[in-house]
Amino acid sequence: MQVRGLLLLLALLLVAAAAEAGKNKKEKAKKDGSKCEDWRWGPCVPNSKDCGLGYREGTCKDESKKLKCKIPCNWKKKFGADCKYKFESWGGCSAQTGLKTRSGILKKALYNAQCEEIVYVTKPCSSKIKSKSKGQ
């Protein structure tokens, strides 16, 4: 009976310690020493080349900060890493241009980014002919 009580007490102490550790992490994340609420953030500037890890600078009154950021290295980078779009399906292939097109509607603009409401993208039509009958 005493062993069971001791194990129960030990389990309660472990749960309490884990909860306290989680609370400290949340407080550290919130506490950045600034009470300013009107931050203005610049674009993400990659460390090298035109994509990958980098930093964005922010200012608020007489304070400034740098945050880590990442620019994706894919075809959407011309819209900016801070503009997120919801794209529709690709349209049919144009025989005149050899391209297919689709549009995207702005879903979210991060860090006060200036984003276009609707964007259009094109890509070359596939030269492969896909067959629907497999295994014949």
From TrEMBL:
Record GO terms (molecular function)? growth factor activity; heparin binding
Please state what the protein is called.
Midkine
Q: Which domain of life is it from?
A: Eukaryota
So where does this one cross the membrane? none
Pleiotrophin/Midkine C-terminal domain location is 80-135
What residue stretches are annotated with the Pleiotrophin/Midkine N-terminal domain? 23-79
Range of residues in the leader sequence = 1-21
Mind telling me which GO cellular component terms the entry cites?
extracellular region
- List the Pfam families hit by this protein, alphabetically: PTN_MK_C, PTN_MK_N
So what family is this one in? Belongs to the pleiotrophin family.
Annotated keywords: Developmental protein, Disulfide bond, Growth factor, Heparin-binding, Mitogen, Secreted, Signal
Localization in the cell:
Secreted
Q: Name one GO biological process term.
A: positive regulation of cell division
Which gene is transcribed and translated to give this protein?
Answer: Rihb
Xref: SMART domains: PTN
Organism equals: Ptilorrhoa leucosticta
Question: Where does this protein chiefly localize?
Answer: secreted
